[in-house]
Amino acid sequence: MPDDLHILHQQIDACQRCMAAGYPVVGPPIYSGNIHARLMLIGQAPGKTEAGQTLKPFSGSAGKRLFRWLAQAGWEEQDFRARFYMSSVTKCFPGPNKSGRGDRAPSRKEQMFCSEWLDSELMLIDPEVVIPVGKMAIERFFGRKRKLVDLIGIRFQIDNRIVVPLPHPSGASSWIQKSENKVLIHRALQHLAAVKEELGL
Ligand code: SF4
After folding, report:
1. Which of 29, 100, 164, 167: disulfide with 91, CB 3.0–4.6 Å?
2. Cα 185 to averaged position of ligand 1 atoms, centre (Å)
3. Residue 49 burial by Cβ neighbours in a 10 Å radius (0-12, 13-18, 19+)
4. Tens of pLDDT along 61-92?
């Protein structure tokens, strides 16, 4: 593992593992933030807007909802982006899904290919707080068997980090539309507001 974030970013930028294995992913890898970030937000994978236009994580329609949620915890988007690290389980745009109406979910193999980069980001940045967003990022911390309803709305302490999971804010998600789940999301945002206050984030 490189001991410098700049070197790690160079290695991620040069990565061709998924392409070499025949997956239709499109670079460049998307992430943002610096070594001093005390909080790290981890999504699933960049979408078309992120990869093709803005080159910034969560800058498409799902990102709009995510930042509306984070505003409820007290963070303004520009400030959040400037001070915290944002990454994802896989860092390249996976391409469209078969129906063409959404993005393809990265396969287990692509997640495995990219896990070294995420592990290295976590190790180098060593954030005090992690927000895994969506099932794929949540699985990274809690395994595959736990259900979202048992994890959203709870503040966890894992090793030396506070971990507060959020569901994926995609408009296509039926999970976030259910009123009982909206209560859980609200609870998670209250935890984040408390963490912000406690740690002076
Ligand atoms: S998604 Fe990750 S592992 Fe796959 S090519 Fe991009 S950086 Fe490499």
Report:
1. 29
2. 30
3. middle
4. 999 999 999 999 999 999 999 999 999 999 99
